Amino acid sequence: DVTEIEEKEAQAKQEQQIIKEQELSNLLHEKRYLKALGLAISLDRPHTVLTVIKAILREADGRKHLEENIVRLRKDQKEAVLTFLVTWNTNSRNCHEAQAVIETLLKHEAPDSLLQYSGIQAAVESLLPYT
């Protein structure tokens, strides 16, 4: 019977999730946005990633700080942000943040590099009508 082992694993996973969420909250409070972005992406939390991006843009020189943080993300993290921003771009409340991230990606990534992103074709097709 493995029920007890599975329950312990589920409880450990839930505890780990709570710890990561608390860490994310602390990072946002401390304005450590790069780590907060990375953690929110790893938790697969598009709304939290959007919250971090909005917090960055509210700062003095927000666009510059957003560029610095987006550029420093790994390729897989940038791909995740790209999939998130496709949804953000369809909502008028979040489209400005989505456009800021798109602008940063287009400025700092070579076209050949962008073409290597998974799901780039679908993302572009989804972004065009709203951009």
Automatic annotation (TrEMBL):
It comes from the Eukaryota. It is found in: Nucleus, Nucleolus. Keywords: Nucleus, Repeat, WD repeat. It holds the Pfam family Utp13. Residues 21-131 form the U3 small nucleolar RNA-associated protein 13 C-terminal domain. Coiled coil: none annotated. One of its GO terms (molecular function) is U3 snoRNA binding. One of its GO terms (cellular component) is 90S preribosome. GO terms for biological process: endonucleolytic cleavage in 5'-ETS of tricistronic rRNA transcript (SSU-rRNA, 5.8S rRNA, LSU-rRNA); endonucleolytic cleavage to generate mature 5'-end of SSU-rRNA from (SSU-rRNA, 5.8S rRNA, LSU-rRNA). This is TBL3 protein. It comes from Chordeiles acutipennis.
